[in-house]
Specification:
With 96 residues, the chain is an all-beta fold. The chain has no helices and seven strands. The strands form two sheets. Strands 1, 4, 5 and 7 form a four-stranded antiparallel β-sheet that branches. A three-stranded antiparallel β-sheet has the order 3-2-6, with no helix packed on it. The chain is elongated. 20% of the residues are buried.
Length: 96
């Protein structure tokens, strides 16, 4: 997520469940704000979440953010796959 962006959604779709996990939360690195609609999202294959909870949110005046996944259990399964779409607005000030 670019610095100074306004986030509208961070949607997810699990295509392959990360091994040993059942749920996850999705948030920005320096923020406790979670994007998923419930307390946790299932990590089962095929589960989607619109990622529109607690948005829009402005990251004005902070560095670029990463999307962070926190799973309910440790996983060492490199085969897990989660697709992410980030919808944000970024204003560019006039230069002249």
């Amino acid at each position: 997520i670019p610095a100074d962006a306004v986030v509208l959604a961070v949607s997810t779709r699990t295509t392959v469940q990360p091994g040993g996990t059942a749920t996850m939360t999705v948030k920005a690195t320096t923020s406790a704000t979670e994007f998923q609609k419930g307390a946790n999202i299932s990590t089962a294959a095929g589960v989607t979440d619109p990622g529109t909870k607690n948005v829009p949110i402005s990251y004005s005046g902070v560095a670029a953010q990463r999307v962070t996944f926190t799973f309910n259990a440790l996983t060492n399964d490199a085969l897990g796959r989660i697709r992410v779409d980030i919808v944000y607005l970024e204003a560019t000030p006039a230069t002249s």
